[in-house]
């Protein structure tokens, strides 16, 4: 792992524990989870690469509605992705704020405003290293969640968003123009069970970025199709 990538993971872990310690003083409920699984990435026509990945995430209710049947909660959260193999998979960090509308005690829907940074890995083609730019994105995910079963302890959640044109941070010495986004999206589904203070969940995500064929996207090497399957355990307090 490169020095800057190691430093980023360390900073992300610090953010994880800072969120736990500091935000808990202001939030009325916090969920934190640690997840592990497999990431699948394919750039252009290159072979798909897979490898282990850790995901840390948290969400807190900053302002809870007094109406337990119909109301809106103000939310804040983050997600950190740390792959073991950073030569083929991206380090990522995202922070967001949003609103969640609940109907009775078993259904919730809402949306987030999210800032997302992606450190794309390089690729080697015919002995030449292709260094991709770092992506900074503003995203607007929407989500729905449903609780069911005895005392509504089981839950399913779906989330997704279109991807808008990112801001690029070119690597040092890069002589390529920035590519132009054609379209992109991500979709994510989770299932889980709440045991009270602790919960477990499994998540699958698929994501796609397609860039136009330009000199900034040689051999479609910015076109990125990724997937992720993880399972984890969390704590609620």
Description:
- By secondary structure, the protein is mainly beta.
- The protein has one domain (3-236): OPCA outer membrane adhesin/invasin (Lipocalin), CATH 2.40.128.
- 9% of the residues lie in helices and 60% in strands.
- The chain has 1 helix and 14 strands.
- The strands form 2 sheets. The chain has a 10-stranded antiparallel β-barrel. The protein has a two-stranded antiparallel sheet with strand order 6-7.
- Strand 12 and strand 13 (198-211) form a beta hairpin.
- The protein is elongated and about 60 Å long.
- The model has no long low-confidence stretch (mean pLDDT 88).
Fraction of residues in H or I helices: under 10%
Question: What is the number of helical segments per DSSP (H or I, 4+ residues)?
Answer: 1
Secondary-structure element sequence?
Answer: HEEEEEEEEEEEEEE
> Mind telling me the C-alpha Rg?
19 Å
Total domains:
1
Residue windows where pLDDT falls under 50 for at least 5 positions:
none
| CATH A-level architecture | Beta Barrel
CATH superfamily: OPCA outer membrane adhesin/invasin
In percent terms, what proportion of residues is strand?
A: over 45%
Mean pLDDT: 88
Taking strands numbered 1, 2, ... along the chain, how are they ordered across the largest sheet?
1-2-3-4-5-9-10-12-13-14
Shape: elongated
- Cα(first) to Cα(last) distance is 34 Å
CATH class label: Mainly Beta
**Strands, count:** 14
CATH topological fold name: Lipocalin
* Structural class estimated from helices and strands: mainly beta
Give the biggest beta sheet: 10 strands, antiparallel, barrel
């Amino acid at each position: 792992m490169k020095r800057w990538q190691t430093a980023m993971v360390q900073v992300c872990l610090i953010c994880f524990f800072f969120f736990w310690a500091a935000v808990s003083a202001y939030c009325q409920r916090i969920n934190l989870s640690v997840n592990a699984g497999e990431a699948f990435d394919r750039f252009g026509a290159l072979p798909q690469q897979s490898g282990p990945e850790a995901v840390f995430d948290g969400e807190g209710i900053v302002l809870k509605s007094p109406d337990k049947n119909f109301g809106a909660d103000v939310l804040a959260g983050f997600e950190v992705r740390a792959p073991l193999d950073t030569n083929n998979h991206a380090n990522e960090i995202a922070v967001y704020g949003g609103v969640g509308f609940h109907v009775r005690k078993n259904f919730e829907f809402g949306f987030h405003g999210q800032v997302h940074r992606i450190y794309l890995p390089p690729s080697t083609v015919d002995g030449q290293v292709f260094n991709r730019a770092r992506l900074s994105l503003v995203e607007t995910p929407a989500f729905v969640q449903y609780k069911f079963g005895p005392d509504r302890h089981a839950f399913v959640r779906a989330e997704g968003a279109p991807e808008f044109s990112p801001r690029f941070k070119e690597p040092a010495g890069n002589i390529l123009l920035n590519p132009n986004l054609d379209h992109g999206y991500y979709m994510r589904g989770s299932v889980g069970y709440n045991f009270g203070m602790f919960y477990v969940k499994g998540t699958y995500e698929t994501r796609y970025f397609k860039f136009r064929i330009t000199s900034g996207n040689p051999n479609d090497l910015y076109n990125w199709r990724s997937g992720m399957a993880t399972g984890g355990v969390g704590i609620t307090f």
